């Protein structure tokens, strides 16, 4: 038969060559004379089921009944009735005989008997699944009998199929007929094709062909008997062979026994209506049926009921059959989340259930829904997505992250909620490796620049930690412009001790990206100052960092000493073994969660020991410093006090990430305008450290204080040059104390400033160039005598 079908699909006969489906392997069982095949669509390869019925004579009764089944299946629609897709008839020659084959294409299904063997459910889980399946078939039978006034005629295990979501559906409509109980005078069979029904499935009146009694019976009488046969076959596990076997009630559950007996009543008028069975039977009241029923009417529930249901569902799902949870409940939950009927607590349940799926199924069935949820405006949904991003982040492709996920997540960097800002920041640990260099440079780093001066100290600390972790994903130019300035100018000068500790650790973790000049002139001077930090943890980290960087400098020195005079010295050096542990510390600081009492300042780091302590928890209230509440610096801060490092590529902040010249202010990133935070009054020891950082040039106490009067007014150029002074001026030569005298100025034209003269301090400076008297050689009046020093402020070039 299978070879024949392959020939038909190849083009022989009429009708099948245009069938847009491929026919595959058959199942081992099917109802009646039909053969049930697996199939696929020729358009998109989606799975389908193909039912085929063949006959040698076009007038064969089986073919006539099959045509009736096709017509009924096409016109009757119900969620628990098999969905019709396509049908056709084909003729083929088998020698001298013409064969006619009817094809019905439906949604992909499997015979119930085979699905039960495949699932292998036992005890309570088996009973719960049977209850759910019988509930669905009872709804289908009730719909036919009570709503459509139709009689199926042969309800049994063979007439039930199971979908990919494990739903039971009724089919085999060959015998299906209208119930003509309103015509008691009719004497012929009410079911035209009742001869197709096995004698073991026929009720007594049907066995006797007492159609008059059947017409006087209720419409559900025949199918209620068939539903009883279905229950027996289901729980006994064997196909019914004779009617007498129905008297054996041992396999029937006690909660269903009384209903089973009423379904098989010998008096047709007393048989139980399947609609009443659904309403009154306690057998259908179990966890699985109640859960699926709630999901089906989820849109009708209020928010309180939804929240209560979804909070209980994770624990409930552990008790339900795993296959039903994955194939039935999980798709329903994902669909309800996507279309908005489910609340944010459902996301936790979806992610827990999806962890039981193979990675391939998760990427196909669940991941597209999660990606769509990032576009939701529900803040609770966004929080749930970010809190569990480690569960699905690795499955996201780089293109999806860069184009669909990150644009929505980036709005969280500037959110009013500090909790959401921190969750957004932490999510970058998973997503940053998948971002393009353009997105990292033009967007992410600018957001991190702002977060490094956030009002929440925990966020500032975690920003530094994140930068240390994603440094390897930045290009070389960006690393040189960003890392040192971010870690030294901001992190090491933060008033929050864990933030300073994180800055030290980040410098150590990224030591392989700095050349020896940067280590000696920009890193060590900043770190050494912290060896007298008020916080013992910061001091210990500072000493370890000094040892690490000194070791790097020694290695470089030994390398230079051993090289030939013509050899070139590399500016880079590989990271020492301790760097791996430092990166591990930074990662654990972002992901570790704990109680408030466990969130102590950052643990001491060792270049050869792994760090596992935490800086912050998702609850921002845990990592706080009551005496170090940070605020943004005022725009009127004195430029002479701004801590500006000397950099070969930038004079302030993180530098120009995009490689744009400094004079293009509109294209600079967030680190081009770093302003120190205006902190509350620090402790004396911390104030000494900050003073040493901000005033690198110190004058010997023995030198006399220079006079207040300036010889020359300060110009904007001078102010700009002072702003760009080297932060490490404390190791530079002191400024010259003598001032040059104005050239070409006659001694008589300038008056020596008396130290006791109260006006001398505000007197204008003498001119820097000599002025030739206007009266010289021109017969004009003599120049007026110089006036008092206090009036020199009105002196002009004309000498008046």
From TrEMBL:
Q: Name one Pfam family in it.
A: PK_Tyr_Ser-Thr
Instruction: Look up the domain of life of the source.
Output: Eukaryota
Task: Please report the stretch or stretches of sequence annotated as the Protein kinase domain.
Answer: 2-284
User: SUPFAM superfamilies under this entry?
Assistant: ARM repeat, Protein kinase-like (PK-like)
InterPro entries given in the database record: ARM-like, ARM-type_fold, CIK-Related_Protein, HEAT_type_2, Kinase-like_dom_sf, Prot_kinase_dom, Ser-Thr/Tyr_kinase_cat_dom
Where is there biased composition of kind Pro residues?
A: 698-707
Q: Name one GO molecular function term.
A: ATP binding
Region Disordered, as annotated, extends over 635-744, 760-800
Cite the record's Basic and acidic residues compositional bias ranges: 661-671
> Where do the HEAT repeats lie?
523-559
Cited PANTHER family: N-TERMINAL KINASE-LIKE PROTEIN, SCY1-RELATED S/T PROTEIN KINASE-LIKE
Q: What is this protein called?
A: Protein kinase domain-containing protein
């Amino acid at each position: 038969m299978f070879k024949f079908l392959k020939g038909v699909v190849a083009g022989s006969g009429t009708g099948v060559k245009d069938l847009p489906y491929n026919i595959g392997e058959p199942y081992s069982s099917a109802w009646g004379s039909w053969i049930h095949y697996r199939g696929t669509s020729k358009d998109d390869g989606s799975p389908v089921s193909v039912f085929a019925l063949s006959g040698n004579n076009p007038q064969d009764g089986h073919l006539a009944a099959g045509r009736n089944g096709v017509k009924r299946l096409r016109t009757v629609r119900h969620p628990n009735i098999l969905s019709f897709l396509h049908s056709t008839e084909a003729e083929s020659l088998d020698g001298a005989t013409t064969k006619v084959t009817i094809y019905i294409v439906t949604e992909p299904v499997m015979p119930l008997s085979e699905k039960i063997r495949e699932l292998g459910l036992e005890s309570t889980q088996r009973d719960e699944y049977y209850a759910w399946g019988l509930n669905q078939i009872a709804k289908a039978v009730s719909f036919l009998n009570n709503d459509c006034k139709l009689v199926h005629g042969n309800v049994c295990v063979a007439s039930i199929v199971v979908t990919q979501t494990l739903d039971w559906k009724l089919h085999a409509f060959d015998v299906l007929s209208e119930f003509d109980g309103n015509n008691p005078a009719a004497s012929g069979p009410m079911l035209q094709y009742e001869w197709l029904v096995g004698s073991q499935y026929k009720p007594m009146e049907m066995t006797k062909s007492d159609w008059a009694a059947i017409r006087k019976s209720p419409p559900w009488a025949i199918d209620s008997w068939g539903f009883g046969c279905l229950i027996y076959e289901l729980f006994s596990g064997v196909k019914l062979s004779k009617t007498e076997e129905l008297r054996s009630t041992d396999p029937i559950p006690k909660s269903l026994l009384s209903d089973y007996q009423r379904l098989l009543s010998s008096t047709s008028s007393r048989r139980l209506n399947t609609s009443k069975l659904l309403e009154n039977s306690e057998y259908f009241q179990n966890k699985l049926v109640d859960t699926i029923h709630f999901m089906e009417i989820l849109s009708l529930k209020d928010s309180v009921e939804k929240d209560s249901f979804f909070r209980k569902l994770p624990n409930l799902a552990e008790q339900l059959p795993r296959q039903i949870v994955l194939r039935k409940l999980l798709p329903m939950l994902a669909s309800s989340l996507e279309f908005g009927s489910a609340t944010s607590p459902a996301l936790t349940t979806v992610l827990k259930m999806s962890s039981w799926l193979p990675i391939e199924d998760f990427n196909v069935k669940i991941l597209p829904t999660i990606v769509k949820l990032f576009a939701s405006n529900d803040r609770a949904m966004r929080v749930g997505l970010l809190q569990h991003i480690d569960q699905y982040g690795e499955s996201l492709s780089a293109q999806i992250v860069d184009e669909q996920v990150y644009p929505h997540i980036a709005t969280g960097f500037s959110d009013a909620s500090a909790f959401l800002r921190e969750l957004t920041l932490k999510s970058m640990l998973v997503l940053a490796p998948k971002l393009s260099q353009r997105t990292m440079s033009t967007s992410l780093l600018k957001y991190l620049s702002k977060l490094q001066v956030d009002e929440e100290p925990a966020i500032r600390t975690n920003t530094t930690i994140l930068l240390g972790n994603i440094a390897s994903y930045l290009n070389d130019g960006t690393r040189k412009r960003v890392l040192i300035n971010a870690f030294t100018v901001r992190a090491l000068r933060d008033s929050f001790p864990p933030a300073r500790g994180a800055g030290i650790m980040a410098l150590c973790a990224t030591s392989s990206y700095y050349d020896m000049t940067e280590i000696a002139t920009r890193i060590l001077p900043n770190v050494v100052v912290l060896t007298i930090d008020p916080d013992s943890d910061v001091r210990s980290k500072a000493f370890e960092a000094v040892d690490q960087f000194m070791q790097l400098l020694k290695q470089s020195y030994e390398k230079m000493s051993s090289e030939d005079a013509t050899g070139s010295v590399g500016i880079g050096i590989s990271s020492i073994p301790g760097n791996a542990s430092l990166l591990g510390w930074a990662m654990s600081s972002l992901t570790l969660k704990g109680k408030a009492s466990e969130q102590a300042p950052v643990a001491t780091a060792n270049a050869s020991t792994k760090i596992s302590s935490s800086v912050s928890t998702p609850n921002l209230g845990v990592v706080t410093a009551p005496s170090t509440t940070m605020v943004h610096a005022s725009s009127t801060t004195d430029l002479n006090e701004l801590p500006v490092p000397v950099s070969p590529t930038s004079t302030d902040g993180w530098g120009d990430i995009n490689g744009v010249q400094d004079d293009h202010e509109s294209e600079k990133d967030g680190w081009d305008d770093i302003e120190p935070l205006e902190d509350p009054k620090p402790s004396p020891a911390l104030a000494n450290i900050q003073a040493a950082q901000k005033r690198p040039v110190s004058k010997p106490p023995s030198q006399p204080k220079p006079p207040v009067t300036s010889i020359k007014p300060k110009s904007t150029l001078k102010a700009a040059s002072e702003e760009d002074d080297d932060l490490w001026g404390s190791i530079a030569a002191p400024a010259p104390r003598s001032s040059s005298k104005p050239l070409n100025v006659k001694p008589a034209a300038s008056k020596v400033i008396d130290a006791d003269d109260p006006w001398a301090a505000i007197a204008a400076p003498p001119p820097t160039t000599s002025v030739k008297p206007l009266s010289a050689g021109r017969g004009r009046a003599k120049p007026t005598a110089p006036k008092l020093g206090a009036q020199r402020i009105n002196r002009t070039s004309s000498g008046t």
